[in-house]
Amino acid sequence: MKKFHSHGKLLLTGEYVVLDGATALALPTKLGQEMIVSETDEAVIDWKSTDHTGETWFEAVYNIADLSSPKAKVPEEEVSKMLFLTLFAAAKQSPELLTSGKGFRIISNTEFPRDWGLGTSSTLIANIARWLKIDAFRLLEETFGGSGYDVAVALEATPITFEKQGVENSILRTSYYPPFSDRLFFIHLNQKQNSRESIRHYREQDNSAVRSATEKISALTHSIITCTDLLEFELLIEVHENIISQLVGLPKVKTRLFSDYKGAVKSLGGWGGDFVLATGTEEDMQYFKNKGYHSIFPFSEIIL
Questions:
Q1: What are the DSSP E strand ranges found in 174-283?
Q2: Three-state SS for 108?
Q3: Is the domain covering 2-173 a CATH 3.30.230.10 domain?
Q4: 181-302: which CATH architecture?
């Protein structure tokens, strides 16, 4: 039996423009996804996924022979389909998976609620890549797509700066634990984001606007990493919000939901759902609780 574990992520800077080469700061979360792999004698992959409560939410059995067959029938159900295609892509990088004659019983446990947006797909990709000793970024490219920052965090298990450079990625391990971390809180908005519309609007921007925003966000990322003053940090994330708001054609989350809050509020990742970052004190968090947001985590509680 082998165990693999990858951490979830929160994208502090660089949402959207990370797709076009902006330097982004991403932080690993304490919670992630564990995958337990046991060999069996039957040439199948017997897969079970459990949630943070231990309840099974998905089960499937795939014939290993189908993972190399172009005529294999792809499952219609979305989760089963994506897992099959992921295993199919992984098998192309790992021929021994197809020829060993062995099978595998796999239990994959997500340690956080799946609607939190902390990286169910990226931690899955990282765990499968670790298990089969294959290229996680190639696997991502052939399956879910995206910039790859989330997979990088899952693999590195440390704060990173991430910069997409053509087919290559610049991934630099860094440290991020600012002196005002006790004034940083992560709040879940209780709604799963659908960022297709904002990505569409972003993709409609002319190249010069995207290029300008990319340069500005990269500079902001480096300033945020070295910032030691809370007021300066709040100013930097406000500037960041203004730039992205203009690019994606959406109002800032503070304008939309928390206009009378005295601290700063920043979207994390795709706009419209999942987590936001808020500055303030423990007492200030009552403001969000009064509005019905009860999944509130201090920096030290959620960030690895």
A1: 184-188, 265-267, 275-279
A2: strand
A3: yes
A4: 2-Layer Sandwich (3.30)
